[in-house]
Amino acid sequence: xxxxxxxxxxxxxxxxxxxxxxxxxxxxxxxxxxxxxxxxxxxxxxxxxxxxxxxxxxxxxxxxxxxxxxxxxxxxxxxxxxxxxxxxxxxxxxxxxxxxxxxxxxxxxxxxxxxxxxxxxxxxxxxxxxxxxxxxxxxxx
Length: 141
Fold this sequence. Notes:
Belongs to the HSF family. The chain is of the alpha+beta class. Helices cover about 40% and strands about 10% of the residues.
């Protein structure tokens, strides 16, 4: 499965304690330390992602259009979300919240719109071509 689909399945699953839906299914919450051990840790029987580094995982989120959001200290209204947040807080881990308009609990069909963005390295040659087609028109040259 592509990255967003894997993430969606994990958030939906009761198998993982480190990732869950937050904000009524509009955001994904990740308990960073627990996620490192539970999902990215070495020696996992089932390797979900090809990475073992949290920074690589967070870069993937960004490449797929996820935005880190700051969460206010108001607790979730739903019991499962509240319990997941409490468990993460009690484990002394930082909870990261990520939002993507095409990544919502009740709307799995939106995952088709969750595409990987082109990297900056791929854009650089295009920018150079644009410069060649539109030379500088300043007096100096």
